[in-house]
Amino acid sequence: MLDSIPAGELIPLRAVGLHPFAARAVVTLKPAILPVRVLRVGDVVDVWVQRANASQLQAASALELVATEAEVVAISAEQGGFSAAGQRVDLSVARGQLEGLVSASLTAQAQLELVRTPSLRDLDGEG
Question: What integer pLDDT is reported at residue 23 of this predicted model?
Fold first, then answer.
């Protein structure tokens, strides 16, 4: 045993707190492009932004990574349907990435894209 647990506790009280989550924040996005496989709570995604005013020749340089290793914490569909345009995704992101992500989501000329990070579920063939 690595640590003692006082009587009456299932886990040590000192192990419970906001410290693991203090460096993260939840943000709600309405992405223009979602991964091909259905997104599920617990999936990890990277968030990219593409500026709509970029020409076709500059499309590659217009893509910008704004958040990495964001965890999907909730998915909701607007009443219009289940297309990407009708979905909102709540992501838990590192606080250091929050400013760039919010700025990108508020820019009218930008499209947010979620790119799912491969997981063990992909290897098992689930999804």
Answer: 83
Task: Give the global pTM.
Answer: 0.68
Query: Is the pLDDT at 1 greater than 50, yes or no?
Result: no
Residue 112 to residues 11, 23, 74, 102, Cα–Cα distance (Å): 40, 23, 17, 11
**Residues contacting 46, CB < 8 A, separation 6+:** 65, 67, 68, 69, 70, 114, 115, 117
> Where are the domains positioned within the chain?
36-119
Alpha-carbon distance 87 to 93, whole Å?
18
pLDDT, position 120? 60
Q: Which of 63, 69, 60, 70 is nearest to 91 (CA)?
A: 70
Question: Alpha-carbon Rg of the chain, whole angstroms?
Answer: 18
One-letter identity of residue 52: A
